[in-house]
Amino acid sequence: MGTFIIEGGHQLKGDIQPQGAKNEALQILCAVLLTAEPVVINNVPDIIDVNKLIALLNNLGVRVTKNGTASYTFQADEVNLDFLQSEDYKIQGRGLRGSIMLVGPLLARFGKGYIPRPGGDKIGRRRLDTHFEGFIKLGATFRYNKEEYFYGVEADKLTGAQMLLDEASVTGTANIVMAAVLASGTTTIYNAACEPYLQQLCKMLVRMGAKIEGIGSNLLTITGVKKLGGTTHSILPDMIEIGSWIGLAAMTKSEITIKNVAYDELGIIPATFRKLGITIERKGDDIYIPAHTDGYEIQNYIDGSILTISDAPWPGFTPDLLSIVLVVATQARGSVLIHQKMFESRLFFVDKLIDMGAKIILCDPHRASVIGHDFESNLKATTMTSPDIRAGISLLIAALSAKGTSTIHNIEQIDRGYQNIDTRLQRIGAKIQRLS
């Protein structure tokens, strides 16, 4: 189990480039199974979860060629379907949440898709019903081995259908879209997710020959085609990492420029951080955060009541950044209520912040009230363990702002979502050391 040793209390300065978006990459990589032709993908993040999926595709028989830094060519012209029933596949699939999105492309192109119950962050229940209910409506037969926790769908032919999703699941929508593009007839998906990463997937599929209307809305209409071809695709910068660096700059009173952020795809993320009093300046496609030497003040509602920041499906605020907002609020002037609606375990890391001196009341598994310090007292260094990716980066930001030297164990969780984070932060002045 790896460890970070962090000497906090230092101002940082410089430029930082966000990696490619993890959540987009997991969808896009699964989509290469939909064609036998080469697919070139650029800006692929070099992180554990993405590398696990690339290895899994390679074991499935997909030819993987690394073209250079962050660029790969994939060709799925000799897929080994027998591997789907192997113990190696079951072990590898369990260790990666994104492996669920292999099922849609496999079902669409080969008539069958199998997956063990995926693992991933322990942040609460994340149901798979939306995925499989969508496949069943397209004509697939579902089976589940309770002893091995092994899911399967099979179909001689998929036929387009009308469906209303019970939740606007991003991965569920992506999976159903990938199955529907090769189905016979027309599929309509209402209450579809419309996140930028899902839009990216749809645009890529259209370039491959798919017929998809309504991209960017919650109503997708897909007219099935018989075959898809190859394409070239570039992954967006990771909006979660961009939000993390905004929070880092504010908490450490640092002057940081975040480069090439695809600003127009960030939705309400900049506006949400501005509600915490953080100055965010757009410079072309970069974000400039000045040093907040006088701190930052949370805005109340216009009637004077305390601000609430909650997560919601896009274009609402992403749940992956609520933990960052919570940490940033600990040193603001004012108070805020954080309402995590989607996952019941994501706020449980706040006990570690309380140990560091933060004034937080955990109201229930979904809500936390934060009373900011206004930097009148610093967070105190401590020893802690990262429970998941997003809590891990939040604790790292807290440690970088704290007085003294902190230790974070289980940093593999952070590495699953953030590429070479220690060396990248060292370049802008962070005092962080990795111990293996």
Automatic annotation (TrEMBL):
GO terms for biological process: cell division; cell wall organization; peptidoglycan biosynthetic process; regulation of cell shape; UDP-N-acetylgalactosamine biosynthetic process. InterPro entries: Enolpyruvate_Tfrase_dom, Enolpyruvate_Tfrase_sf, MurA_subfamily, RNA3'P_cycl/enolpyr_Trfase_a/b, UDP_GlcNAc_COvinyl_MurA. Keywords: Cell cycle, Cell division, Cell shape, Cell wall biogenesis/degradation, Cytoplasm, Peptidoglycan synthesis, Transferase. Coiled coil: none annotated. GO terms for cellular component: cytoplasm. It catalyses: phosphoenolpyruvate + UDP-N-acetyl-alpha-D-glucosamine = UDP-N-acetyl-3-O-(1-carboxyvinyl)-alpha-D-glucosamine + phosphate. It holds the Pfam family EPSP_synthase. One of its GO terms (molecular function) is UDP-N-acetylglucosamine 1-carboxyvinyltransferase activity. Phosphoenolpyruvate binds at residues 22-23. Residues 7-422 form the Enolpyruvate transferase domain. Pathway: Cell wall biogenesis; peptidoglycan biosynthesis. Its EC number is 2.5.1.7. It is found in: Cytoplasm. UDP-N-acetyl-alpha-D-glucosamine binds at residues 97, 320, 342. The active site is at 121 (proton donor). Belongs to the EPSP synthase family. MurA subfamily. Cell wall formation. Adds enolpyruvyl to UDP-N-acetylglucosamine. This is UDP-N-acetylglucosamine 1-carboxyvinyltransferase.
